[in-house]
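User: Structure please.
Assistant: Input sequence and predicted structure:
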Amino acid sequence: MRSRAVALLLILSILGNAVQLYLYIDSYRTNKKLSSCISRLSEENKALSQQVVQLNNSLRMLSSQLAYYRQMVEKSTSTSYEGAGSLLGNATVSIVAVRTVGPWWNQRMEGVVMEAEVEIRPGEGGVYVKTYPYIGIDLQSSLNNAISAVESLTGKSFSGFDVLVTIRAQEEVEIVDGPSAGAPLAVAILAAFEGKSLRGDVMATGVIYPDGTIGRVGGVPEKAKAAAQMGAKIFAVPPGQSRVIVMIPITKKIAPGFYVTTYKEKVVSLEEYLRESGYDVRVVEVSTLQELVNLMISG
């Protein structure tokens, strides 16, 4: 009788443990699914946040374009405005930026080269931006800084002039970093204002500040490679950015027929990086607008 009771208790204990094991496994699977779902939602939230930033940039750009077209209409219909719209100077410069490509779970940065035409016209100190085709890029603050830097360098005021900038690209793109085009745009504004020519084989990247200093930017390797592909022989970068971090793939065999690839950071010179990619480009660090002007303006 006692042995039967012991056997029954043992069976009940085994069944209880089995139920607990089942509940544990089910809980583990549920937690794993939830973790995967949370990770996916986190990535989606990151992608949506980037889209919100891009949409805000697009809104600012469209507002600038609307202001430009409104003023152009007002000037064209005004009978008291003399000499409205007469071109005082213009210059065209290549600007480099980066954009994200690929699906949200595997995005990467890619350089893109666009053409910026700067026009100086009589006006009231306005700054206007147009894009062809649609380009999600915010240049308003960069252009204001660029004009201040040019005023500081030349000692001349732009209060009696309007600056019109037209950006052209080969396709519709969403640009990540509009401020990095500030330095070359400042040079183009100066060239247009003084009637000078820009070299076609020199491109640059850098944030411009009102005092004429040039600040650091991101995506330098991607921008440099895009510039080289478009024929640049000299690429100007902010101080300290002639050396860049690149990701070196390392592939290891973990089992017959199975390989795993990891990436290791490596600091290399930008010239070396471009040379390994098949491009012969001289990289020059510039810290001020004057240094960049000396590099980009002919004669």
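The domain at 44-240+280-296 is CATH 3.30.230.10 (Ribosomal Protein S5; domain 2).
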